[in-house]
Amino acid sequence: MSNTNHDFEYVSNYLDGVRQVIEKIETFQMDAIDRAVDICMNSMVNNNVVHLFGSGHSRMAVEEMYPRYGSFAGFHPMVELSLTNHHAVVGSNGQRQAMYLENVEGFGKVIASNFHYGKHDSIIVFSHSGTGKVVVEIAQEMKDRGIPIIAVTSLAHSELSPAKHSSGKKLYELADVVIDNCAIPGDAMVKIENLETPVGPVSTIGNTVIVNLIKCKIAHKLTELGRPPKVLTSALVVGEEKAKQLFEGSYEDYWAKTRYL
Fold this sequence. Notes:
globular
């Protein structure tokens, strides 16, 4: 799968790189984002959910979708702490363990087996490389269940990387819709004079732009259908009482939508 935004070069200023990423998403990825919105809308209007999965730092994109200010129920975060808890770094629950586990074949199958699935469910899977064994296996498990897969990944990185899973597959090869986060191979994009390796990863920026575009487009469509979502909103915007009502309403809505899981 070739893509015209692979010409990204290292920059000396992080803000310049961020601007380039956002411009490339707007130029090249909007059609894929719109197709992803259609898939998610099908789940929501049929009272099913959009699952969200990411390993490692891709978990941040999962939490950006729900629950946080400016978000709403209908998304189901699948967060496996053993793959995403980076606070210890070393010692118990350390980074070495997490990086090892994300490439244990069979683990994704076990994670997927812990949930029930609705007829109209869908999933967004986040992975910069798209090659981790658990991420690929999650996608395989969803594909076997007939659940549409939206992949958010760096195509530039993934296409250059060898497949790790025994199937020989990468995430983007299993997805129904692929959204390129437009990050460069290796993710870090700022070259500093006399520093051997680049700094300043950009995939989180791309992922955040993508998920919020999806979220806003879905909110617009739901509202047009007369089904406006209960959006988690700050008391500074709507006052303490209204904010509390929205939070409680959103949580109850989430419970109702995920009761079959």
